[in-house]
Amino acid sequence: MSARLECAGLTGGRGTITAFRDVDLAVEAGTMHAILGPNGAGKTTLLLTLAGLLPAQDGTIAVDGTRVRTGRATEASGAGIVLVPDNRELFKTLTVEENLRVPARHDAEALRSMFELFPALEMRRELLVGALSGGEQQMLAMARALIQRPKVLLVDELSMGLAPVIVERLFAAIRKVATDNKCAVLFVEQYIHVALQVADFASVLNRGSVVLSGAAGELAAESERLEHAYLGVQPAVHSHKGPP
């Protein structure tokens, strides 16, 4: 049985610049997979490629075993891939409810379910998005993605600039949707400890290549190995030469 999201030998970048290469990933339905790595490692470019916003240079992407052509955002969306970008891309001159009604497509039940998941948004449903706090805007960006009932949810830097309590609530909401709707979640996170606490699996992307991958709990227990992978250095080899 194939994973919900699979990519094999995926290579991509922007223009002629290659940002990541030969990436193999398999994210099962109902699980959360973290992508870790330093700035410039290719993490965001990888998500944009999976979402169809950038063409791949090589490799394949599949959802539920069906190939998705790269560089075609409409096809990726039709396959059930939804991206929450790091800049949120909200309509700030519209209200909270208006931002949700566009992707909801007049589905009143879907709209109601998002307000149940994020009660703070229901309290501000008639407020213009530009008047929301950063945390509330991130909640709205997440709700706008989840209201589309994605098979694959891609999240870029959810915690950026947010208070820890807001980050905790957002990840709890993502976990609930992943479990209830069998959604595969692939997320980029700058804070390693936060990512490993909420993820089932994690991969470290460094200089465009996956240099470490495994169960999140196992990687968290191997802090030295994780640090070396993140920093892109080889572990030191200690030898005992004895007295001179």
Describe this structure in words.
It is a single chain. 37% of the residues lie in helices and 26% in strands. With 244 residues, the chain is α/β, with parallel strands linked by helices. It has a domain at 1-80 and 152-159 and 183-231: 3-Layer(aba) Sandwich (Rossmann fold), CATH 3.40.50.300. Strands 6-7-8-3-9-10 form a six-stranded mixed beta sheet, with helices on both faces. A four-stranded antiparallel beta sheet has the order 2-1-4-5, covered by helices on one side. A hairpin with a 2-residue loop joins strand 4 (56-63) and strand 5 (66-67). Helix 3 (96-104) packs parallel to helix 6 (134-146) and helix 6 packs parallel to helix 7.
Largest sheet: 6 strands, mixed
CATH topology of the domain at 1-80 and 152-159 and 183-231: Rossmann fold
The helix tally amounts to: 10
Compute the CA-based radius of gyration: 19 Å
Tell me how many strands there are: 10
Strand order of the largest sheet: 6-7-8-3-9-10
Shape: globular
Query: CATH homologous superfamily of the domain at 1-80 and 152-159 and 183-231 - what is it?
Result: P-loop containing nucleotide triphosphate hydrolases
- Broad structural category: alpha/beta
Strand content: 25-35%
Q: What is the residue-mean pLDDT, rounded to a whole number?
A: 90
Q: What is the rounded distance between the termini?
A: 60 Å
**N-to-C SSE string, H for helix and E for strand:** EEEHEEHEHHHHEHEHEEHH
CATH level 1 name of the domain at 1-80 and 152-159 and 183-231: Alpha Beta
Question: Which spans of ≥5 residues are poorly predicted at pLDDT below 50?
Answer: 235-244
* CATH architecture grouping of the domain at 1-80 and 152-159 and 183-231: 3-Layer(aba) Sandwich
Question: In which range does the helix fraction lie?
Answer: 25-40%
Q: What oligomeric arrangement do these chains adopt?
A: single chain
